[in-house]
């Protein structure tokens, strides 16, 4: 996306304050919800299904570490730094760690692990939240589409380890 598209998204979101509150609220809520659910799942698994506990911890750890290493190596600028605009929420100028999206990758790998433990609707709900996390990161102006897609791909690859 180019600067004009991002500015259009910012104007669209700020046109009605409820839009901005929803987008920024989801950007904050989803990681907290998935994180708390993940911790509860680890505790539950420890007591009732300890055989799957290593996988439940190892895959997200590998995903998070891989994404962090790639980000630190590439130092890709965020859209708001490269295209010179103020994002909708989560403004940290000069951070230069956009590719791949760690929020999206972490949300996706945790959702995929939760799908393994909590078969059915709840797991699918968590995966939908992970995709929504990526969309919100783009709408906020914190990531390019390619950052989010790369984060999702890494999470799906780590899921098949």
Describe this structure in words.
There is one protein chain. The model has no long low-confidence stretch (mean pLDDT 89). The chain has helices at residues 3-15, 17-48, 53-74, 79-82, 102-117, 121-140, 145-159. Helix 2 packs across helix 5 (102-117), helix 2 packs antiparallel against helix 6 (121-140) and helix 3 runs antiparallel to helix 7. The protein is mostly helical and 161 residues long. The relative contact order is 0.18. Helices cover 76% and strands 0% of the residues. The two termini are 32 Å apart. The chain is globular. It has one domain (3-159). The longest helix is centred in the first third of the chain and has 32 residues, at 17-48.
Q: Which characteristics define this entry?
A:
76% helix; 161 residues; globular; 7 helices; 0% strand; mainly alpha
Q: Major β-sheet, in short?
A: none
How much helicity do the residues have? Answer: over 70%
* Total domain units: 1
Please count the beta strands (DSSP E, at least 2 residues each).
0
Shape: globular
Distance N to C terminus: 32 Å
Question: What number is the mean pLDDT?
Answer: 89
Strand content: under 5%
Q: Tell me which oligomeric state these chains represent.
A: single chain
Instruction: Note the run of SSEs as H and E.
Output: HHHHHHH
Q: What is the CA-based Rg, rounded? A: 16 Å
- Helix/strand-derived category reads mainly alpha
Please report the number of helical segments: 7
**Unreliable spans:** none
In short:
By secondary structure, the chain is an all-alpha fold. The protein has seven helices and no strands.
